[in-house]
Amino acid sequence: MRETEVVWGVSVTLVVMMSLLDLTICIKCPEHHGEKPAHDPLLPRPSDASGMSSGGGAACLWLLPTSVRGGTPPKGWLTTGAQNYSTKHKGVPQACLPSLRLFPALSKGSVSSWKRMGELYYCLSEIIEQPSPLSGHNHLGCQNTHIMYQNKPPFCANPIVLLKQYEICARPKFIADGATRFDVEQGELGDTWLVQAVSTLTLTPKFLDRVVPPDQAFDHTYCGIFRFRFWHFGDWVEVIIDDRLPTFKGRLVYLHSTDPSEFWAALLEKAYAKLYGTYETLTQGFTTRALQDLTGGIVQSFSLTVQDKLLTYQVLNSAVPRSTLLVASINLEKDNKRNLRLRNGLVTQHAYSVTGLARVRSKLGETPLVRLRNPWGRGEWNGPWSERSWEWDSLSERDKELLSVRVRNEGEFWMSFDDFARHFSHLDLVHVGPDDWMNEPALHSKKPWRAVLARRRWRSGYNAGGGPTFTETTAMNPQFHVQIPRAGLSKCHVVVSVVQQYDTAMSAQDNKKRHQLHPIGFAVYEIPANMTRLTTAFVTEHVPMDVTAHSHARETVTFFTLPPGDYMVVPHTQQPNCEAKFLLRILTDEQSNIWEVNEDNMVFRSISLERLDEGMKKKEGRTVLLKLLNKYPPELDPQALHKFLKHIGKVTFLVEKPTLDLVKAMIMLRDYNISGKVAISDIPALLVMLQFWRTAFLKFDRSHSGKTSSYHLRPALWEAGVTVSNKVLECLVLRFAKSRILTSEAFLMSLVRLHLAHERFHSIDTKMKGNPLSLEEMILMTAYS
Predict the structure, then answer these.
(1) Catalytic residue numbers?
(2) Which of 3.40.30.10, 3.30.450.40, 3.30.565.10, 3.90.70.10 would CATH assign to domain 297-442?
(3) Which residue of 490, 555, 572, 589 sits 20 to 30 Å from the alpha carbon of 700, by its own alpha carbon?
(4) How far apart are CA 196 and CA 328, in angstroms?
């Protein structure tokens, strides 16, 4: 393919940036050069579309400097007009420009990273700015096949047409008078779960602004692209889309606003469909997933139809005062994609926000009440304790005023807790972190959570020990110590969430991969205050105080109420040796101390001839030394020492013959002059060290085969007088274990590398005032070499 040419003085910097964004840049006309238009391999081929047509789309992007925009393109270059493309180049498929892919936050979701992503959007908008705000052509198109990748879309007899906003109405608006809670209406996709999540988002304006940046409009800045942000595995990613929307007979067919001139909701749905691959993926989903994607919070779901009422009330009583969004809904098993108004005034498939709890005393006795708010503003409860019910007459005016019966938010109402538990089927909790609480004024009346976040991974042979039923290895999982101070606290509310890494982009080929998430969970152990790490002996003798149900979901969550004490949280996969990245989040409502269990890198046991067994020191040690003095020169090279160790192996501890590599490594421990040899006087000390290390290994070599599980490496190192950090241990497993098996030779070699690293570090630290390397860095460099 001939080299892509840049039109009329576009800078090289611009070309590089556009190539990084995976955009097609003005490919030479295939009719003149026999070339095929560029196509994003991630997008469906135009030939796959059947029964659908586009309401005017571009074939390629025409890049021109600002000074010459509006002129005619050079000969041989494609123009942006779909009509010109189709008439002049009939033999060429209409390959739209590939839509922009996801841009991960450059700084883990910080505000600065959003600004940098915004700069990318503004830079791109300037590049493709059009001569007239509402008369330009499509630039960042998506194929018609993006609507459905497998099944035919609704109205397949009359194809869906992709139209721009100004082709749908005369004066389009991105957001009309602010995105209110009454904006969103369901379309033909039946994605009621997404509608519920979006409607909940409108009750928190700052959260909505984060997902739907308000600095977009159909004015002089309009360039045919829009951007939205979604939470994905701990980061906020930005999705950029073009402005075409699916329509049928000139009307939007999917999610849309009640105002026909407002388009933020429809564009948001399109961006969300792009995040998950196609519109078809939105036909099935869960409110919990959408709530997390839109808020970034920890989402916990309860089925009120099977849960004990007392437990439900305890959950409400604990969550309402805190920085947690509560969403209640009525989900019917039949017609679950329709909104039905029930006789009691409630509407199915609608998200009602729980905003308060109260207890009132009346002639009927004490009654617990629940306050709810309908984001749609219609569908209020008309049963007992509704606005005009007779139950309010039994209360004093003071109680009525306290409950804000007269003055309240529109769409808000009270109902008894018994009616709430009887009529609502689902309750979702969205626990919001302290940073989001600070940025959202609507939550400032609630008590904020304290948060701890850790990104880790399960690696086979290192820390993928499986659930508590695997007592031999479950203690090898990552461990997090939660300490709730005993002074002044009666209890502490704790939320623990484990999210495994997941992929949102889906095609027909990797549809099955989506369901290959590992069943994950976590266990919580109550431990003594002086315990630093769970051991195999401890988990064998003690039952965890709680173990979550294992599921293939991307997140597992539990809401605890814990008394003061020390606890160990152990995230795990149900089966051992399952590898995956995970995100652990722990929220507490009181002061607490949380840290990951780790060890220092140190050699805490010195091995020397003075600590040798008397028999070995006086008899065997002297005998070995005499043999060396009589038969070998004062210094031995690796080959000579290797030959000697093979001869004395059966007499001493060396059951298996050491390899030449191990012998060379052992010499390095005493070869301070880098001569490649070891003095005879140092050999007994080396033999003592090898004997001690070999004895430590034999404690875990139950089959006496010279092999053990790599999960035993940490305790074996401790027996050999060495402790290592989690990172160093992972490095040692990767370097010396094979298929989760650790041989005695590999174990001895790892100890040699550890001792060498310690000696090198202390040597450099002594000679240099400021050592640029840390001890862990030195160990990693030495062990992995």
Answers:
(1) 350, 374
(2) 3.90.70.10
(3) 572
(4) 10
